[in-house]
Design a protein that fits this description.
294 residues, alpha/beta, Chloramphenicol Acetyltransferase, 7-stranded mixed beta sheet, 16% strand
Length: 294
């Protein structure tokens, strides 16, 4: 049996989806009321409605024929990749890279190589747009059970020539640290530009032909497998629908919680090169059986 859920990102995010599933599953399986997560519909009280004067740029997003491929990174491979980043880095900022930072940097690097190979060039500016759960990062903090779309973002950039893995991890770390600093500067209900500005900037980058632009979102650490126990144990496999646009990456935990499953969507031309990249395949398995992903 398969259960599918569809929601609008205008009103909900991955954390909200997890809260909904956890409450639904606990109620359906007959667990006592004390174990049921209580959703909090308190967003308006924390962030009152206001007129937002920042207008998005008038741009046309080009359509491309794209493919989505699934890659799985097992825990031992992730540990080896993190060790490689730490060994080669001279920056204290990446002494302890996270799993998502490490894998995002690897996919970013390999996607850039594919794009440049198809264009027949060796250098090209690039940017990676990363979504962020803002609940614990804003003033005042928002409870994890709050229902809404509490998503911010930052944009990491790299120079035309920079493709070293540890350098890309450092840029991602720099981006999240700067975002957190800005988010705690003033209460969110007083200045929402820290949330809106990167999103508006991303729309402009998405439409440029002279920049490789990628977008990344992570569902890791939301414990979706534990949430979706309707009384029969953990589900065999939890995944997301295909990303909706080119150059998009989605990360999800594997069933054992130690590995990461990644959905990568690139143009057809870039995917042909990307899926054969030996640096990528040294750490990732291309579309393994869901019965063997942990």
């Amino acid at each position: 049996m398969a259960i599918g859920i569809c929601l609008s990102h205008k009103i909900a995010d991955a954390a909200t989806l997890t809260t909904f599933i956890k409450t639904w599953a606990a109620t359906a399986s007959g667990i006592g009321d004390e174990s049921v997560v209580v959703p909090l519909f308190n967003a308006v009280s924390m962030m009152p409605l206001k007129d937002i004067s920042i207008a998005p740029p008038a741009v046309e997003i080009k359509q491309h024929k794209s493919l989505t491929k699934r890659f799985v990174f097992h825990s031992s491979k992730i540990a080896a990749l993190k060790a490689k980043v730490t060994t080669n880095s001279v920056s204290a900022e990446v002494e302890h890279p996270t799993k998502v930072e490490t894998l995002a940097a690897l996919i970013w690097k390999c996607a850039m190589k594919a794009s440049r190979a198809n264009l027949g060039i060796s250098t090209r500016p690039s940017a990676l747009y990363q979504n962020v759960n803002i609940r614990s990062r804003v003033l005042p903090p928002v409870p994890n059970e709050s229902i809404g779309n509490f998503v911010g973002s930052f944009i990491a950039r790299t120079s035309e020539a920079e493709t070293e893995l540890h350098g890309l991890v450092a840029e991602l770390r720099k981006g999240i640290l700067q975002f957190c600093k800005n988010a705690k500067r003033v209460p969110l209900f007083e200045d929402i530009s820290v949330i809106l500005q990167p999103q508006i900037e991303a729309i402009g980058l998405l439409c440029r032909d002279d920049v490789d632009f990628y977008a990344c979102t992570s569902w890791c650490r939301f414990q979706v497998y534990e949430a979706a126990d309707f009384g029969w144990g953990k589900p065999m496999w939890v995944t997301s629908a295909n990303p909706t646009c080119k150059n998009m990456v989605v990360f999800l935990d594997t069933k054992d919680g130690d590995g990461i499953e990644c959905l990568v969507r690139l143009t057809e031309e870039d995917m042909k090169v990307f899926e054969c990249d030996q640096e990528l395949l040294a750490y990732a398995s291309l579309n393994p059986s869901v019965f063997k992903t942990g």
